[in-house]
Amino acid sequence: MKITDGEKLILLMLSELYDKLKVDGEVEPDFIRSAIFSDNTWSIPWKYVGIPFEEQETPEIVKEVLDILDMWSMIERSYANLSDESKKFVENEAAPFGKDPMFRGFDGNNESEYMGTASFLVNDLDRFEEFKGRDFNSHCPSIDTYNRMLGVFKPILRRNLNFRPLSAQELVEILKEKVHPDSR
What we know:
By secondary structure, this protein is mainly alpha-helical. 54% of the residues lie in helices and 0% in strands.
């Protein structure tokens, strides 16, 4: 959503009025403020789907973060459903990344826009609630790793999982991509 600077100021002032007058409406002033201050105004039509906003393109970084969160959600859920024997297989075959694989976020210093987008999707838009309460700062560069993993994950997804979890072998194939190609 493209909002001019003047419109941002008006929305922020209206949000303050909502709070001051204790208006109990459908529009959440805290969300509007958060979307404006974090420069995530693309999210306003996502939150308020009943309002007929003009069609807009989702920012590329949002699409990328959604793909990454979707992949990690499936990895974590699939791993949790494995038998102990299959978990051991994943741990051994995808070492050192196969034991209790978990989404750790993005580098706060160099990937802060990704980190902020993930945090906003989870904490403000209530998407991927399984990641709520996480820090989202991996303290190390992650985006290249996630993109390598997505290169393996997306073809598996295209083979039509039909909502089944990933197999132990598929998890191994995806998690092995965490090892940089120069270190294989």
